[in-house]
Amino acid sequence: MTGSYGERLRTAVARYGPLCVGIDPHPGVLDRWDLPRDAYGLERCARTMIEAVAGRVAIVKPQSAFFEAYGSAGIAVLELLISDAREAGVLVLLDVKRGDIGSTMDAYTAAYLTDGSSLAVDAMTASPFLGPGSLDGAIAQAERSGRGVYVLAATSNPEGVTVQQAASPEGGTISQAMIDFAAGHNADAAVRGEWGSVGVVVGATIDPGTGLDFAALNGSILAPGLGTQGGTADDLRKIFGDAYPLVIPSNSRGILNAGPGVAGIRAAVEETQQSLG
């Protein structure tokens, strides 16, 4: 990796715009594309998506679960997707939401954030709910290897509110504590005038009234839920306010459903990009 993840992402966003295309080849998508629900169908879907978006978007976000569901054959397809994206110059943010302690988190880090692994990507999502400090090792390795970590902060699923909007020991919400945790890791990059490599995940459909403060974050904000899940560009502006330039909106199903033709996928990408301004 050349340079930090934060700066590679900022450069790519300046060139292609902020849209992140989610690659979630769930069975319904395979059916819609008239592909079999097996590793062959998975591969055709995943690699077609990379072909369609290469040179048009900064970053893609494959959802690991839809590959893991096919066992070793599915993981092999995920490896192909990562390789295809790398060759095409598209950043890969793997949505794995890993979070554990000790040697177990070290093993996840070795798989996704370490040179030489066939699953190594530009960034991964991580769960901090065993304590944000449980991610320190992964973040340190990410920074050493020029990669990034996205910490779950305020997800769009309604069940998340129970935990994420609870009071933290510092007196704010748990969501705000996670944003502040990421900001702490990005402080050195802020001094250099760079984007930090620790981002946060904040859903595009959360209540704008949560009052989250991103002023010190200095890192990107992955905002899943654009499109089919109901999130709009106007919602993003309401939720993030002055932090909108840091937002990486993710649209998965709305773009996948435009397939299987490459032209249809590209048209959906362009339409989404235009809506973001």
From TrEMBL:
<keyword id="KW-0456">Lyase</keyword>
<dbReference type="InterPro" id="IPR011995">
    <property type="entry name" value="OMPdecase_type-2"/>
</dbReference>
<comment type="pathway">
    <text>Pyrimidine metabolism; UMP biosynthesis via de novo pathway; UMP from orotate: step 2/2.</text>
</comment>
<keyword id="KW-0665">Pyrimidine biosynthesis</keyword>
<dbReference type="GO" id="GO:0004590">
    <property type="term" value="F:orotidine-5'-phosphate decarboxylase activity"/>
</dbReference>
<dbReference type="GO" id="GO:0009220">
    <property type="term" value="P:pyrimidine ribonucleotide biosynthetic process"/>
</dbReference>
<dbReference type="InterPro" id="IPR013785">
    <property type="entry name" value="Aldolase_TIM"/>
</dbReference>
<dbReference type="InterPro" id="IPR018089">
    <property type="entry name" value="OMPdecase_AS"/>
</dbReference>
<dbReference type="Pfam" id="PF00215">
    <property type="entry name" value="OMPdecase"/>
</dbReference>
<dbReference type="GO" id="GO:0006207">
    <property type="term" value="P:'de novo' pyrimidine nucleobase biosynthetic process"/>
</dbReference>
<dbReference type="InterPro" id="IPR001754">
    <property type="entry name" value="OMPdeCOase_dom"/>
</dbReference>
<keyword id="KW-0210">Decarboxylase</keyword>
<protein>
    <recommendedName>
        <fullName>Orotidine-5'-phosphate decarboxylase</fullName>
        <ecNumber>4.1.1.23</ecNumber>
    </recommendedName>
</protein>
<comment type="similarity">
    <text>Belongs to the OMP decarboxylase family. Type 2 subfamily.</text>
</comment>
<feature type="domain" description="Orotidine 5'-phosphate decarboxylase">
    <location>
        <begin position="18"/>
        <end position="268"/>
    </location>
</feature>
<dbReference type="InterPro" id="IPR011060">
    <property type="entry name" value="RibuloseP-bd_barrel"/>
</dbReference>
